[in-house]
Amino acid sequence: MKAVLNGLATFALAMSLAGVASANDDWKGGDAEKGEKVFKKCAACHTVEEGGPNRVGPNLHGIIDRPTASHAGYKYSAAMTKKGTEGLKWTEENLFTYLEKPSDFVPGTNMTFIGLKKPEDRKDIIAYLEKAAGHTK
């Protein structure tokens, strides 16, 4: 009986971890061409080309895996700066969550954008940001 219970517990743990892994991969599979179109919602405040200027928001070239609040020459909110000093990086997963509702991910952020509710739009933006920076994953 003990072996059966241990086996069931191991199975339950494995299934739980598989669920976590799959939830953590929600950002995968975006389309960069579609993301370029979605990015037009962002282009009033952000540029993405290498060496592009900061606008109301920072230039986003190379944002993937960059520490939060680290783009030179941009003055970040205290809330975003705090996230950077805490070690937060803009991984694909963090961007996916942030872009859904920025003010929930970084309370106190100056970014007033309401967010992208559709997961596909967020995936596509991430794919576009990777392509614009020359990332190949």
Molecular structure report:
The model is unreliable at 1-22 (pLDDT under 50). Helix 4 crosses helix 6. The chain is an all-alpha fold. It is built from six helices and no strands. 47% of the residues lie in helices and 0% in strands. The protein has a single domain (30-132), classed as Cytochrome c-like domain (Cytochrome Bc1 Complex, Chain D, domain 2), CATH 1.10.760. The N and C termini lie far apart (47 Å). The relative contact order is 0.18.
Which helices and strands appear, and what pairs or packs with what?
Elements: H1 2-24, H2 32-38, H3 78-85, H4 92-100, H5 102-105, H6 119-132
In short:
This protein has six helices and no strands. With 137 residues, the chain is an all-alpha fold. It has one domain (30-132): Cytochrome Bc1 Complex, Chain D, domain 2 (Orthogonal Bundle), CATH 1.10.760.10.
Search tags:
single chain; 137 residues; mainly alpha; Cytochrome Bc1 Complex, Chain D, domain 2; globular; disordered N terminus
CATH architecture name: Orthogonal Bundle
Query: What ranges have pLDDT less than 50 throughout 5 or more consecutive residues?
Result: 1-22
Number of strands: 0
> Going by CATH, what is the homologous superfamily?
Cytochrome c-like domain
Fraction in helix: 40-55%
